[in-house]
Amino acid sequence: MLKVGVLGAGHLGKIHLRLLQQSEKYELVGFYDENHENGEKIAKEFGYKQFDTIAKLIHAVDVIDIVTPTLSHYKCAKVAIKSGKHVFIEKPISNSVEEAEEIIALAKEYNVKGQVGHVERFNPAFIATKDLIENPMFIETHRLAEFNPRGTDVPVVLDLMIHDIDVILSVVKSKVKSVNASGVSILSETPDIANARIEFENGCVANLTSSRISLKNMRKTRFFQKDAYISVDFLEKKCEVVKMKDAPENPGDFDMILQNAEGVKKQIYFANPDVSQNNAILDELDTFADAINSNGTPVVTLEDGTEALRVAYQIIESSKK
């Protein structure tokens, strides 16, 4: 089992601590939190070992799980990697693309593995449909959340939209051609609502909307491709696949047939992929252990996290124009 330590014991850090303790692939050694009083409370309540310095925790483990505020991701990753430790970094990978690129370079130099916590890649509804998503040409996403002060220290693009950016980049096998965006600040110093249009070199267009001051929660993405429509509800963990094929010569009474102006007939049918419920956070942590043990490639690489961050900042810059 890999010995693992957690940096940061806030809301998400506590979840990681609990799941790592449950995991059959890690031995949870302990954690460090810069708020020592909060750390003492968590150690007392759950029995996790609290370390009084980052250096001592890093020395005691094989893997460091970084769940600190984004501003400190780079600093924490740099220290861990230079100590020869593998790093799991919660999204976004860092506060700037330059920092992210240096993390990649350091990981190569010290021959360690890294994974970024883009958890929607492990959402069961996305897993059930991702192999059906082939060359999408239009993608529409809505990620809406009720207001929560946690996370408002960064623009909504880095807080929420970056999830969808990563998912889109994972299925569109083409380079980004252009980005146009707008953003509005309502309650925060940075935009709380953002809309972006990403055009890819292969002609695919993605339209993304994110809000953290919505009256309801929504996390839906729709993929449109030749002869298919795929809807993924990341919140409800449900999916819908609608496909078209050439209509049979003698359709049945209940077959759905469409005919266009040229007289071409198509049959609409529904595919219902099995959605196997899982714990996405536990799965992302466990697959990282698998990548380390097998010397394989993590599901969400440091490069993936960096590209998502790069596009996120293109959106942020475009929204300022």
From TrEMBL:
Q: What InterPro entries does this protein's entry cite?
A: Gfo/Idh/MocA-like_OxRdtase_N, Gfo/Idh/MocA_Oxidoreductases, GFO_IDH_MocA-like_dom, NAD(P)-bd_dom_sf
The source's domain of life comes to Bacteria
- Gene Ontology MF term list: nucleotide binding
Query: For the Gfo/Idh/MocA-like oxidoreductase N-terminal domain, which residue ranges apply?
Result: 2-118
Report the Pfam families cross-referenced here.
GFO_IDH_MocA (PF01408), GFO_IDH_MocA_C3 (PF22725)
Provide the transmembrane region boundaries.
Answer: none
Q: Which residues form the GFO/IDH/MocA-like oxidoreductase domain?
A: 156-216
User: What name is this protein filed under?
Assistant: Oxidoreductase
Q: Which organism is it from?
A: Flavobacterium pallidum
